[in-house]
Each structure stands twice: as structure tokens, then as C-alpha cells.
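From the pipeline queue, job 12 of 40. The input is one protein chain; the requested action is below.

Action: predict structure.
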Amino acid sequence: MDCVNIGLIGFGNIGTGVVNAINQNRELLRERAGVPVSITRIADTDTRRKRDADYDPAIVTSDAAALLDDPSISIIIELVGGLEPARTFVEKALRNKKHVVTANKAMLATFGADLIELARENGVSLLFEASVGGGIPIIRALQTGISANNVQRVHGILNGTCNYILTHMSQDGRAFETVLAEAQAHGFAEPDPTYDVEGYDTAHKTAILASLAFQQDIRFADVFVEGISRLKPVDLENARRLGYVVKLLGIAKRDAGDDRVEARVHPTLIPTTSLLANVNGVFNAVMVEGDLVGQTLFYGRGAGQNPTASAILSDVMAIAASLSGCTRTESDDRLRIPVGTKSLKPIAELETSYYLRVSVTDKPGAMAVISSILAKHNISINSMLQTGERRTDQAADVIIVTHHAREADVQAALGEIARTDVAHDQPFVLRVEDEL
């Protein structure tokens, strides 16, 4: 094969980064893939805007079908994002026997198992290293590097916006809204940050990792999601006093007894001694635990033009090397995701320790009422803090860390506490992961 021709659909920031990366490392890519790679057609709705890259404007079209139906193109890079028309483009490419590389986490978290099966039926590859963790090679690690392991747990800091906010709330004692505005000013957060701060971005990535780690068809809708917008500086300060830091984690665990999988995203207290506790700012990290390898940590920039382009081109090179006869294509068959096959553990059955912030009216007997309700729901107290500051509304915040308890019991207890005359506000809860 003289050259592997690529069609790029989506010529935004990441697409521009891919073009620049190919231009910058063209000879390195040819040497390591065993064949030159070239973007021969680009499709985008905006054909007139000049991108900050060296390319021939004549290859840009608004008609994606011109790429999808072109027999000379072997690989389609899909960078449209979202569910549609991205899924339609990918399905057509696979049916036309074209390999596909994508960074589209939302599409994969919703339709991934179906698309992987479609790729298998048509004898082509669907690769998606860039969909989780930007330039961190976590997908390839799960598919190949640690595929001899029974993966037991995956914990990930998967959203740089949230990690930046939590880092500065913790270090500076500033409110969520203040740090969010700063993140937006620096370009680390979108004008509408909902997708990031409410945990949806992390949930998409968690679904992908859980599916690969446990070979089950786990999708975005299967993931329990809570964001970070209700956190207050006092929660991060209390966590520090208790020996923890707070991180938004994507968590996937398999029960060794029945293979049921927990898939959840929420702000989490983790010990300050954990490696994940020291992942700060916009950086991402994924900790994977296997029965043979133990704990492994993957760390790096989780987003950005160059890290994402690096991951996309690693997939392109794997396919190109196979097409040139240098290596076998990385197969999706090593870790199959059977469509429709899943066994999930409901969040109500989660058993862990909990951090509770309860605002109580400052009067005698208030704590006795709280303690009685917790005991009634089989929740025992491990430690307790009081802030020492009386609020202007004559309420006081009491911080309780429980021993292991069931989620359903905790939620029932908090609901009952909220209905008493000693509760001043709705109780606030965070989950604890002590095993990291």
C-alpha cells in the first residue's frame, strides 16, 4: 500500500489539531506505521473559515457522503461530537468497510456496544482512545496491556474542569461559583458548564471504561450521577480535617460474588495518602486494579488539542500498520462487549462510609434526635465534628462520618432527619472511598 488515505469529519479545534500533528510528525508516523498517512478529504458545515493549519482548502467539503462513499479512503476520523449525525456517519462508514477513529464519548456511551458489533460484522475496526482521558492511553491499556487481568475496580478523575474547581476550592477556601467563574475566564470551563460540573461528561467516560473493564454493555443511562455544584468550601475543609480530599470520581467496580457492576459518578472523599488525592488542576488520572497487576495509575492531560490529537493518531497508526502488513490490527474481539448483556448493582445497594453535613437548630437534645434516627436505620457513627461557628440563623453544622452503611438506609435516614424540627436545612451527603 502506497499511502493510507484518511477522511476527517469535523474540522473544529480537535480536527485542526489532528491536521497539525500529521504535518508536524509526518515522517515519524510513516516510519512507525510502515506507510504514509494523509488526510485527503475533510467534511465540515463551515467550509469558508480558515483554520490555523496548513491544508489545501480544495479538499474541504460540506458533504460528509463525499468521504463516506469514497473508495480510496480507508479511515474515517469522526470529530463531530454529540449523538447525531455522528452515529449515522459512523454507521455508514462501518457498513462501507471503512475503519473509524472517534473521540466521541457521548456517542460511545450511548451506542458503543452496537457500533463495536457493527464494526466486527464488517471486518473493520472502531477505535476510540481519545474518548477517555485525552492523551492518556487508558483504552489501549484495558484492551491490550492488562487484558490478562480480571479487572476489579476502576476509579477515575476524568474531567479537568471539575478537578480544577475542586483543587482551588480546597486550596483557597473559595466558593464554587467564584472558582467556576475563574475557570471560565481561563477557558477551562464552558460558558454553560452544566455538562461538566453536573457529572455528565464523567459519566459518559465511566460508562466506556466500565464496559471495557467488565465486558458488559454499560451505557450512560446506567450510571448514577451527581455533580459538584452543591459542594461548599466547608465540606473540603472538613474533609481535610478528617484526612481526606474531595474529588469527582467515576467509579466502576465488579462484585466478585455475582459479577454485578457498580457504575457511579459523584464527589467523593478519598484519603490524602491516595495517589489520586494528589492529581490537581486540569489533570486527569485513572486507577485500575487487576487481580494480577494490582493497582496501576494512568495520569496526564485529559483534554486539549494536542493530547487529544495524539490519542487519535495512535489509533490511526494502529490501523495503518495493519493495512500495510506491519502488524495485526488491534482487535475489538479481545474485549467483547455483548450487546444488551449487563448485570448492574443498584445505587440503593451500595455499601460504603458516608460524610454527612447536617445543619441543626442550636438547642438542647438536637443531636440526640439525629443520633436516634441514624441508629434506627442501622447507621453507626465513626467520627463527628462541629465547626465551632454559630451561624447567624442560630443553626450549627454537624459533620458525621459513618461506618459502612447501605445507601438506601442513609437516604431514608436523611429524609427523616429533614422532616424533624431540629433540621435547619436539607442534610448533605458525600460518599467515602477508603480503599484507594
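Job complete. The mean pLDDT is 93.
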